[in-house]
Amino acid sequence: KAGVTQTPRYLIKTRGQQVTLSCSPISGHRSVSWYQQTPGQGLQFLFEYFSETQRNKGNFPGRFSGRQFSNSRSEMNVSTLELGDSALYLCASSYDRGALDGYTFGSGTRLTVV
Amino acid sequence: TQLLEQSPQFLSIQEGENLTVYCNSSSVFSSLQWYRQEPGEGPVLLVTVVTGGEVKKLKRLTFQFGDARKDSSLHITAAQPGDTGLYLCAGQYLGYSTLTFGKGTMLLVSP
After folding, report:
1. Which residues have CB under 8 Å from A93's CB, separation 6+?
2. A105 close contact with B: CB closer than 8 A
């Protein structure tokens, strides 16, 4: 079966711009979570969506937002980009119970802010 | 803030050696997972443990969950170059539905 698909794989943006990242979960998976990975902080939880509703939210500023569509595909948006937003953004899907089911991660979107 | 600490941060060994990676927290986990991440890819789930004292084996990898459910270890026997990668533990704390990740142990196995 197809895995979790994230697009684009790489992105270079300028400070102040905004960006939208996309994630298509495994077919049948209804929970989608987003993580930011940096060398210094590791993986940090952004938010989780389930059936088009945000179920959990991490400790990130309001510039980071997301949504989930009826087909479970999810997008995350970062507005007013800062240099510190440069990171690997990972999307993870699971069937129903989120973390308890275990995540299947996508390959990530590498965002570089210049 | 709940902290999940992994040690060591880096490990460089020769093929055939054994190693153990540790994951510790001061809080109790309802479940804990181990992932392996290779460069340019997302983490891949290796195992989930939920019961204190539980031991699970995956070929040459042995995972143990502490009796008090505050710590876990990953032991690799006779490491191979294919084991190279970033090993991440991730815990679900009691009362929380999300995962908290450790910063990982970078393992390099040389032929």
Report:
1. A4, A23, A25, A26, A29, A31, A32, A33, A72, A103, A104
2. yes
Contacts of B83 (CB under 8 A, 6+ apart): B60, B76, B107, B109
Residue A99: list chain B partners with CB under 8 A: 31, 33, 90, 92, 97-99
Interchain CB distance below 8 Å, A100 and B90: no
Tokens of B24: 């510790």
Which residues make beta-bridge pairs with B40? Answer: none
**A10 and chain B in contact, CB less than 8 A:** no
Beta carbon pairs, A and B, within 8 Å: 58
Measuring CA to CA, which residue among A33, A13, A9 is closest to residue A114?
Answer: A13
Residue by residue, pLDDT tens for chain B (111 residues) are 567 999 999 999 999 999 999 999 999 999 999 999 999 899 999 999 999 999 999 999 999 999 999 999 999 999 999 999 999 999 988 877 788 999 999 999 999
State how far the alpha carbon of B107 is from the alpha carbons of A26, B8, B38, B84, in Å: 29, 9, 10, 5
Give the residue from A100, A107, A109, A110 with the most B CB atoms within 10 Å of its CB, the best one to mutate: A100
